[in-house]
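Researcher: For the record, we're logging two predictions in this thread. I'll number them. Prediction 1 follows.
Model: Prediction 1, sequence and structure:
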Amino acid sequence: MALVLAFVLFGAGFPHTADSLFQTTHAFITATFGWYYLLTVGFFLAFSLWLMLSRYGSIRLGRQDEAPEFGFLAWFSMLFSAGMGIGLLFWSVAEPMVYLQSAPMGDEPGSAAAAETAMMLTFFHWGMHAWAIYVVVALTLAYFSFRFRMPFTIRSIFYPIFGDRIYGPIGHTIDILAIFATLFGLATSLGLGVMQLNAGLERLAGVPDSVFVQLLLIGGITAIAVASVISGLHRGLKWLSVFNLAVAAIFMLFIFLTGPTLFNLRFLVDTTGQYFQNLIHLTFWNDAFGGAQFQREWTVFYWAWWIAWSPFVGIFIARVSRGRTIRQFVAGALLLPTLFIFVWLTAFGGTALHMELQAGVEGAGIADADTTAALFQLLGHLPWPLISSVIACVLIVTYFVTSSDSATHVVDALVTRGSKRSPTRQRVIWGITEGAVAAVLLFVGGEAALRSLQSGAIAAGLPFSVILLLICWNLYRALTREFRVPGARRAANAER
């Protein structure tokens, strides 16, 4: 807490110095370690798929006869709300529009080929690679906690290496890195959310688009998130997550039906095929002769952002995944969210691309709109723009609340070494702290707040990526040892 407070005071007291430091760190990491991020995240995806298809897939996260703690709908709703939420709302229209104009793979800007490539690259950044990072952390932690009754913290995963030393300085260091990664990864999403919410309120009610308004929004929504934290995991967060998924599905269906429905269905099939056809190429595409500019600005940022989110999302998903087999877990946490996201991105991004290139909507301006306003620019050209814009704002707020709520439970578990019983005031303090970090990054960045948020995520993701690689090694060692036990082999054979 002292380290976080020092960061908050430094950013608030010396914003120009802090901004310069963030940008220098950002430039150094993306230029020096971009290739490392690509290889690392590609490995996480391969490792996750191997686990699902391997003989270890029958091992259950808990007792071998234990039933899942949550039903499938509640489980999927919570993991999806924690895993994506705000960012998906922010970028579903803006990202394809940016790629349409910049044509990063050499297509003619603004062409049909550039539109297809734009959607494929958006699928790439939001698809299986992102969820594979979460799977690595969540699966490993659930395995060690539910099968071996280890504390619910990242340090528990390293017991095979360090033994009882995880309860000393080594374990403290690992969990502190996880806390910082969580805070900065979450701050990026919360910052994006309030920037987009401010853009929506400006269109709906003429609220000025300014950092001051965004700071007020962070304060108000953080207060709601803290109230949700107090209500507990099985009440506030569970029902908010189900509400989020239901409203998001209705919102997506509205866009599909009021937009170019037949075009989007064809576009979904077309782009999904392109995604899988080019998956290996995209995984290792580093554009060495082109200077890797696109990777540094986009892919490396996304991979670092997902890694920074991974302790928070991983711990939370693990906590709600007791009783599922490894195969069920990977299929549910890797493949299903990816398919849902593809449909979502096609509904929003595909409609925007069609409107720009084929529909002849005069003055659509979606591609020229600011990234924070791109979604609302699209909604303005569809039926009932006022109602749909209000729904978008409600989703942003509720995703903000569920993300902050989930992160608070996770940070609280880390600082209490996995205890499920902690003082309510402690959860309240950490909920407020998460909002404060996001506020400082917005304040420091000023007009370039998005750049500041990205810098925070990239800086937090690099050290934690090393821990993720060690996590994979630990899980592999533990699974191979357990499978030597006859009972595990019998369970696998029975499932077959």
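Researcher: Logged. Prediction 2.
Model: Prediction 2, sequence and structure:
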Amino acid sequence: MAQLWGGRFTKETDQLVYNFNASISFDQKFYKEDIEGSIAHVTMLAKQGILTEQERDEIVGCLREIRQEVEEGKLEISDKYEDIHSFVEANLIDRLGDTGKKLHTGRSRNDQVALDMRLYTRGEVLAVDELLKTLLTHLLTIMKENTDTYMPGFTHLQKAQPVTLAHHVGAYFEMFKRDRSRLKDIYRRMNYCPLGAGALAGTTYPLDRDYTAELLGFEGPTLNSMDSVSDRDYLIEFLSALSTIMMHLSRFCEEIIIWNSNEYRFVEIDDAYSTGSSIMPQKKNPDIAELVRGKTGRVYGALMSLLTTMKGIPLAYNKDMQEDKELSFDAIDTVKGCVALFIGMVSTMKFRRDVMEASAKNGFTNATDAADYLVNHGVPFRDAHGIVGRLVLYCIDKNIALDDMSLEEFKAISPVFEEDIYDVISLKTCVEKRITIGAPGQEAMKTVIELEERYLKENA
């Protein structure tokens, strides 16, 4: 097929070179964006008197017809076209003749592809944000239902202090909240229109770039034509945000995998999100959690690939930048799929409250509170720390929890202990007396949950 840019050339491109150069196999993904941009461009050309109203109407009508036929499967986007822009324009010319050839007036493929990628990415930013909002809604439900579900809090994967499941899940709520905030920032920063930048130096046609930007829902036009066609910062930012989302999902999945193990038994994953073993009939594997954890590296790879591609590119457009698409498309689809599956898994997962509470008791998570008890009775903290350390060693030797010790056993190690030590080291007391905002106590959690509910309403 003759290329739309072929006038300068007297010899056909080598087939291998053509195949290597072509992008139709992946950039067909944004045929809608290409047609949307073309409709806005033609509308602006007619407003400026560069095209007649009749030419505008014919081109716009035909573009909409092409879009509908693609969506209905009547028109195939095939590899006989070099890219999606060539596909759209060639089909337009086939149907409208010379009128169709006027579509490209005042426009380059460089600003065209810059627009298409920006429109596509902008839509995907919103799609990922919507998924995160749904995830946060489910996490908030878990928080509301588990403000008195006691469990061990960990540092170094060692049981540290008692918390609640609501408090633990609330930590992930904050992470995904920050993710949404990053997406909002990216959207705001990227929402400027590159169309009209031309190849790199604008055009002599009297284009109204503000009008085109308005038609396409942008804040305004980009302000430097060279930067317009060579900027991929917004995509790097998006891939970075996606990588952070995957890191948060991966951390949560890692905990679910641990909690699902026989040693912990904190959760039971629904059958729909588990698989069995081909040889061991007792197995129930957390495959979805493991796959989300595994796919995190795939998204990181896309970010590193684009950063590496862009690091040595001089102004303005270079063909290297075609490499922004395949891995980015894959990363975006991967993240959307992972968030959707994670929502399904976490919203159907059952939490073993009894096992979590028993684990908190048996892990000496109330040892700090026992030390605070001694300090409040006049014992220097360093001495209190040593006394409680001896208590823990005693319990380990006897295979009991602090709560299981008799008062005589307490007093044998320190006569300061009295009957009220049992109330002080109960999980309920240990948690509920932590009342500062951000802590796991009931009153503190109630305040936080109200704030999170308000956040979701204000950021719907």
